[in-house]
Amino acid sequence: MTSMNRYHQWLCNSRMWARAVEKDLLPWALEDVPLGADTLEIGPGYGATTRVLARRTGGRLSVLEVDEGPAERLRAEYGDRVDVVHGDGCAMPLPDGRFDAVLCFTMLHHVPSPRQQDQLFAEAFRVLRPGGVFAGCDGLAGWGFRLIHLRDTYVPVPPRTLPDRLRAAGFPTTDVSLRKDNFRFRAVRP
Asked: CA–CA separation, 46 vs 160, rounded Å?
């Protein structure tokens, strides 16, 4: 289970965050990313990203949430429209090669260690079909991002390390790009 302070919980469950996700973050993170018929989102939390993905994906959407409370809330909200799985992204209870796209947004820094982050990358590779894309975004470790995460589980991912870490997970080529407060990435399983 990840730890989030009360302010961070409020922010991630706010309309302000939901608007930012819909209008800015996901359009940027998913620019030119094909989602395919079967998409997995890792770490949806309160579901701001899931709301956008549920409208955007043309096929089946599954989400994998480590915390039982948010997973139950997502099940109640989406019913059978989204397959909500309670589980850990570092040991996904999902079959090999099932998904066309695996996505994660602003959650990698909540994975408790770099080793576990690397396990999540390897698991994303495992559950992707050949030709499937692993994509997402996260925040850059500036002072504002750090402030929001006081007393949180907070292990920022240095974007400069991501290409080598994704290659180690099996992705031969990666693309990482930065903007003011965020980075996005995409990698394709051969």
From this structure: 29
104-126: per-residue pLDDT in tens? Answer: 999 999 999 999 999 999 999 99
- 168 phi and psi angles, rounded to 5 deg: -60, -30
CA quadruple 164, 168, 173, 175: dihedral positive or negative?
negative
C-beta of residue 169 within 8 angstroms of C-beta of residue 108: no
Q: How many other β-carbons are positioned within 10 Å of the β-carbon of residue 54?
A: 17
Q: Are 182 and 138 in contact (CB under 8 A)?
A: yes
Beta strands in 24-173 (DSSP E): 38-42, 60-65, 83-86, 99-105, 128-139
114: Cβ contacts below 8 Å, ≥ 6 apart: 155, 157
Q: What gap in Å lies between CA 153 and CA 149, rounded to an integer? A: 8
Amino acid identity at 9: Q
pTM attached to this predicted model:
0.94
Q: Encoding tokens for residue 22?
A: 């819909």
